[in-house]
Amino acid sequence: MEFSIRLFSMDREANEVFYEGNDTTVFSGSVDVIPDVTYYQLIDHSLDDFLDNFYEENYPAIYELEQKAFTDWFGQCWKKTGGDILYVPCFFVFHDDTKSYELINNQWIDDEEKWS
C-alpha cells in the first residue's frame, strides 16, 4: 500500500489558488510534498488474497487505525516544522473524504464547515 502527500493552496470557495507573479516566496497551486511511498508491502501473489479476504473483512477497523496513525504522524510533523505558528487555516484531508482535520485546533470537521 502507498500514500502520498500533496499540498494545495485553496480559497474560501474551495478553488485552487494560482499566482502569476515572479515572487518565489509566494506559494500557490499545488506541490507534491511526499510522492508515492510504500508503507507496507506484500509479495505479489499474497496481495490479491490480502485485499480480497482480510482487508475487505476488516476494512472499517483497518481504515480507522490507518487514518488515526497518519493523522497523528502528520500533526506531529506539522507542529515540529512550526506549522502551528501559521495564522491561516490548515487542514489534513484524506483523498475523497468528506471531513478534514483542522491542524490548528486538532479536530475533525465536515468539509462544508471548512468552506463556509
Q: Given the structure, what is the number of helices?
A: 2
State the assembly state of the protein chains: single chain
Main sheet? 3 strands, antiparallel
Average pLDDT confidence is 83
Describe the strand arrangement of the main beta sheet, using strand numbers: 3-4-5
DSSP strand tally: 5
Low-confidence stretches: none
Distance between the termini: 34 Å
Structural class: alpha+beta
Strand content: 15-25%
Rg, Cα atoms, Å: 17 Å
Give the CA-based shape: globular
Helix content: 25-40%
**N-to-C SSE series?**
EEHEEEH
Task: Explain the overall architecture.
- The chain is an alpha+beta fold and 116 residues long.
- 36% of the residues lie in helices and 22% in strands.
- Strands 3-4-5 form a three-stranded antiparallel beta sheet.
- Strand 3 and strand 4 form a beta hairpin.
- The protein starts with a strand and ends with a helix.
Q: Which descriptors apply to this entry?
A:
116 residues; alpha+beta; three-stranded antiparallel sheet; 2 helices; 5 strands; 22% strand; globular
Q: What order do the helices and strands come in, and which of them pair?
A:
Blueprint: E1 2-8, E2 30-38, H1 44-80, E3 91-92, E4 99-102, E5 107-110, H2 111-115
Antiparallel strand pairs: 1-2, 3-4, 4-5
Compact overview of the structure:
The protein has 116 residues and is α+β, with helices and mostly antiparallel strands. It contains two helices and five strands.
